[in-house]
Amino acid sequence: MRYLIILFIVAYITPVSAQLHQQLYARYDAYKEISLSDRRFKPEDIQALLRQLDNNFATKEVGQSVEGRPISLVTYGNGPVQILLWSQMHGDEPTATQALMDIFRWLSSSNDGFDTIREKIKKSMTLHVIPMLNPDGAMRFVRRNYHDIDINRDALRLQTPEGRILKHIRDSLKADWGFNLHDQGRGTSVAGKAASVSLLAPAFNENRDINKSRGDAMKLVRYIYDRLQSFIPNQVGIYPDDFEPRAFGDNIQKWGTRTVLVESGGFQQDFERQEVRKLNFVLIISALESIASSSYKKIAVKKYNEIPKNASRRLHELLLLNVNIEGLIRDAAFDRRETQNITARHYYATGYVSDLGDLRTSVAFNKFDASGMVVQWGKLYPTVFNTVNDLQQADLFALLKLGFTDFVVREPVDKFSTNISPQVNIHNTMPAVVETLRLGSNPSLVFKVNDVVKAVVVNGQLIRLDN
Ligand SMILES: [Zn+2]
User: Taking the domains of the chain in order of start, what are their residue ranges?
Assistant: First the structure.
């Protein structure tokens, strides 16, 4: 009996420590910073959260952006290994910034079963975090800084205050590890699927040589890759590793800091990348634990080379196969673009045709095969609605099944704040409905079998009406 109890205890405890990443994933909601829920938050939102950090952290302003916005450095722990993490060097790449706020909440917590791991991190390393290196870009939700310089091409010339800050911090710390946190395009693919996360141990020269420090970064990348397989199997790729002499990641690797690039990508219909934010939370803490326990060292560098590489072809949002309209059969790919308002706080999405022809080798988040179906243009509903609310009260699914995809609403409609479900096109005046399938056009399409509508495409989105 005693033997059985010991067996039970061992069986119970071992998986907890062996599967930190799964524990973190399962209990993420307890640590999520809920004031951030989409990508277009502002520098003030982050500054407000940093002011609330408890005395586990030291926060200081280490400089200012071109427009005078503070750039902050948050420090945690008192161990000898110096770890530098920076996010949002590109203003429209905010996923990791949100995860860093979640990680701060996790680091501040206690009595939740993670104390041992937090203690290990705190004693073995010091974290130095620059969340949002480019606040001017973040304010406008654009990639570059105020002077339209890409900070990530300024590592040598150092003409941006933001780049100078990063260089100064890196040099003053002589950081042992660097985490360079970015977002990549939603359509970035690996092996025919979305590359929801891509990783890289950047090259430090044209030859892409491997020295001790890059080798360590490669081992850690493989460690992270293995952890992510539980959540996004086959959706993790290696980011292109051409040496870019002007970029920070490559130079920081060259300056002797073991550097890991993390690129947050697309995942299903999660346009605000909240799932990938969660994965950043899991992967960064898992990586820190691995550095603290040296577990990554057991991995062979060659295992890094076995990770699939990001593919060059882009994943479309929607791929319609065998569309029979205008007297010929074509495949049609749709993508989406975002138009943001003047404050860069809100946006609306517009679908558009991005490719036409034989697209059997293309890849997409969503696929629909229209073989044998009758395809028609969506119709304009003849009755005018007074308000969006009136329109929302109508049985839109029933109207879509009758082939009506476009509606007129008399009151002015604010596209930035209007969400209607299911998706239909709303116009202010009687428009000419788009009846052309061409690159850049955004037609509504109706798919029928035996005169029954099976699906519609509205604004680049597929709505199935099978049942
Ligand atoms: Zn970037």
Answer: 21-305, 315-464
Q: Which 8-state DSSP code applies to residue 28?
A: G
Question: How far does residue 184's CA lie from ligand 1's centre (Å)?
Answer: 7
The architecture that CATH gives domain 21-305 is 3-Layer(aba) Sandwich (3.40)
- Cα(229) to centroid of ligand 1, in Å? 23
Amino acid at 442: N
**What phi and psi values does residue 204 have, to the nearest 5 degrees?**
-110, 0
- Calculate the dihedral angle through the C-alpha atoms of 102, 108, 110, 113, rounding to the nearest 10 degrees: 40
The answer to whether the CB of 148 falls within 8 A of the CB of 90 is no
Residue with tokens 């673009």: 337
Tell how far the Cα of 437 is from the centroid of ligand 1, in angstroms: 34
Distance 17 CA to ligand 1 centre (A): 33
- Determine the distance separating the centroid of ligand 1 and the alpha carbon of 420, expressed in angstroms: 32
Buried b / exposed e across 156-189, counting CB within 10 Å, b at 16+?
Answer: eeeebbbbebbbebbeebebbbbbbbbbbebbbb
Question: How many angstroms is it from 91 CA to the middle of ligand 1?
Answer: 8
* Cis peptide leading into residue 240 (ω within 30°): no
Ligand 1 center to 185 CA (angstroms): 10
Please tell me the distance between residue 276's alpha carbon and the centre of ligand 1 in angstroms: 15
- Secondary structure of residue 362 in the 3-state scheme: coil
CA of 93 to the centre of ligand 1 (A): 6
Q: Tens of pLDDT along the chain (467 residues)?
A: 455 555 454 444 444 445 999 999 999 999 999 999 999 999 999 999 999 999 999 999 999 999 999 999 999 999 999 999 999 999 999 999 999 999 999 999 999 999 999 999 999 999 999 999 999 999 999 999 999 999 999 999 999 999 999 999 999 999 999 999 999 999 999 999 999 999 999 999 999 999 999 999 999 999 999 999 999 999 999 999 999 999 999 999 999 999 999 999 999 999 999 999 999 999 999 999 999 999 999 999 999 999 999 999 999 999 999 999 999 999 999 999 999 999 999 999 999 999 999 999 999 999 999 999 999 999 999 999 999 999 999 999 999 999 999 999 999 999 999 889 999 999 998 887 788 999 999 999 999 999 999 999 999 999 999 86
89 C-alpha to center of ligand 1: Å? 7
State in Å: Cα 72 to ligand 1 middle: 19
CB atoms < 10 A from the CB of 326, how many?
13
Ligand 1 geometric centre to CA of 134 (Å): 11
60 Cα–ligand 1 center, Å? 24
Nearest partner of 310 among 241, 392, 246, judged by Cα = 241
Whether the bond between 422 and the residue before it is cis, its omega within 30 degrees of 0, is yes
